[in-house]
Design brief:
Elements (H helix, E strand, L loop, with lengths): L2 H17 L49 E7 L5 E11 L1 E5 L8 E11 L7 E5 L4 E4 L5 E4 L4 E5 L6 E5 H4 L13 E5 L24 E2 L7 E2 L9 E9 L3 E4 L2 E3 L2 E4 L6 E8 L6 E4 L5 E7 L6 E4 L3 E10 L9 E3 L11 E12 L6 E3 L3 E6 L2 E4 L9 E2 L8 E4 L11
Parallel strand pairs: 2-4, 3-5, 4-6, 4-7, 5-8, 6-9, 7-10, 8-13, 9-13, 10-16, 13-17, 16-18, 17-19, 18-20, 19-21, 20-22, 21-23, 22-24, 23-25, 23-26, 24-27, 25-28
Antiparallel strand pairs: 1-2, 11-12, 14-15
Length: about 400
């Protein structure tokens, strides 16, 4: 396609998004400045002839749920006290983190790398109720779901589940805060490429020995032969201030989806101010919908290692004074490895900070965008910000479709 034709297709796509821009009003950014994750106390009732004193701040719960440890009380940024119930070690069986009746009196904290289940061993299920807040205090605090185990984190629009940092609980975060705790890593048994042993390629995704070590945690394995594998359900979840460089070139993302199968439900998720990628897919088949990335300091959307999936309604607004590409995709130098990447995105808005390319595609995959807009904050030409792989790689399709707003693309 020549540049003039390519430009026309891009502009048609942009116009289509403006016309069919449904669903966006329901996706909210956490905004800027101090983000206080716990509600402020209810205002005092209107004064009577004898004025009623202003209610005192919430008091902490007296104990912690089974499977968690009582590690004292934490004073939140709005002056309330909450019981700090700590989760550590390996979750085996079914651990439930309930929402207490008083919305201000219990928070949960991660101590180190908390793993759900044991790879190849005892399975675990972590269930998190709507409205629960979980925090990490350092880059070494993260949540990892091993192969064969599951997480059920299903909030609601009015009571989302929030993963955040200790600083955010204390009211000490600003618009520039990033990388204050580890993040979430989900490992599944769906096919991948870039196998760690026996050659990178995995034709048909049927090799029993095609596995790899995920970046970030030590010796955590992903990959398998189950395309429809389920790692659980995540919906109405916010992940704030995550990301951490464990070692040079080895980082924890906001959310890492490695070998995650299509049986996993992944919708209505936001990652905010991650110091590494927002969401990174390493192989697997999981689909997503209503995904928001804000203030990401690396790539907002990143896919590798033979990922095949559909993602619809994706908003990514890159970090204003940093950030890398809004979207990056590659196959780790193994451009001929199978399964070949096949990533389709619909109803996408990518906003670059102008410091780098909007999209960088480095080969080994096929990518399609439908009814989407790409733009740069510095007013640069978007066409020069889409970097395509070598000519031999089928790479990019930009088109307007009749896809209705109510359809479920994923």
């Amino acid at each position: 396609m020549n540049k003039k034709a390519f430009q026309s297709v891009l502009f048609v796509s942009a116009a289509a998004l403006v016309v069919a821009g449904c669903g966006a009003d329901s996706v909210a950014s956490p905004g800027e400045g101090n983000i206080v994750v716990l509600p402020t106390p209810a205002p005092a009732p209107a004064p009577t002839p004898t004025p009623t004193p202003t209610p005192t701040a919430g008091t902490p719960a007296t104990d912690c749920p089974t499977g968690t440890a009582n590690v004292g009380v934490i004073t939140t940024g709005n002056g309330e006290q909450a019981r700090n119930c700590q989760v550590s070690g390996i979750v085996q069986g079914n651990l439930v983190l309930p929402k207490r009746p008083n919305t201000a009196n219990t928070v949960y904290s991660l101590s180190g790398g908390v793993e759900v289940g044991v790879d190849g061993g005892t399975t675990g299920i972590l269930t998190i109720e709507p409205g629960v807040t979980i925090f990490g205090s350092s880059g070494g605090d993260f949540l990892l779901v091993n192969r064969g185990s599951q997480i059920f984190a299903e909030g609601t629009a009015s009571a989302p589940i929030v993963f955040t940092s200790r600083q955010n609980i204390l009211g000490q975060t600003t618009v520039d805060s990033i990388g204050q705790w580890g993040g979430i890593v989900i490992l599944g048994r769906a096919p991948i490429s870039d196998c760690a042993t026996g050659g990178a390629s995995n034709p048909g995704g049927t090799r029993n020995d095609c596995e790899a070590i995920v970046e970030g945690p030590s010796n955590a394995v992903y990959g398998g032969t189950l395309p429809a594998d389920s790692s659980g359900r995540m919906s109405y979840v916010q992940v704030r201030y995550p990301g951490f460089e464990v070692s040079p070139g080895n980082e924890l993302n906001g959310i890492t989806m490695a070998g995650v199968g299509s049986g996993t439900f992944f919708q209505n998720v936001q990652v905010h101010n991650s110091s590494d990628d927002g969401v990174e897919w390493f192989g697997g088949r999981v689909n997503g919908k209503n995904l928001v990335m804000t203030g990401i300091d690396d790539d907002s959307v990143d896919s590798d290692s033979g990922y095949k999936g559909h993602n619809q309604f994706v908003l990514a607004v890159q970090r204003a004074n940093g950030g890398d590409h809004v979207m990056e995709a590659d196959s780790n130098g193994d451009e001929d490895a199978e399964p070949r990447q096949d990533h389709k995105l619909a109803n996408v808005t990518f906003v670059s900070n102008g410091g780098d390319h909007v999209i960088l595609l480095r080969g080994g995959g096929d990518y399609a965008f439908y009814n989407s807009v790409f733009t740069s904050r510095n007013g640069g030409h978007v066409l020069t910000s889409i970097v395509l792989p070598p000519f031999k790689q089928r790479a990019l399709v930009l088109t307007r479709t009749g896809l209705p707003c109510s359809s479920r693309y994923s």
